[in-house]
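Async update (no meeting this week)

Hi team, since we skipped the sync, here's where things stand on the single-chain job. The sequence we agreed to prioritize is pasted below, unchanged from the tracker. I ran it this morning and attached the output directly underneath so nobody has to dig for it. Comments welcome in thread, and please keep replies under the output.
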Amino acid sequence: MSSGSVHDILIRPVISEKSVAQTERNNYTFQVSRESNKLQIRAAVEAEFKVTVIGVRVMSVKPKQKRRGRKTMGTVPGWRKAVVTIAAGQKIELFEAV
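Output:
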């Protein structure tokens, strides 16, 4: 992925019990595209939410087997997530509504 737009890099915020608890420590979790790197994620978050990013941690969530009916098995596809740490005193309003 060359530069890509912000919407191509940041797919959606991850809203879970753990990620919402992390917002108290200025850590915000996003699902990101598989081809993006830390520099592109940092630039996308800074451009989209007008905050200062201190650090980016990226990890891949492995695909999981799920049962579809009685005998058939399906697979939930894997995805990539990024935990972004922003400067103290700043907030991303998207997560505050939860």
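Quick observations from my side:
Residues 6-88 form a domain with the Alpha-Beta Plaits fold (CATH 3.30.70.330).
The radius of gyration is 15 Å.
Reply here if anything looks off.
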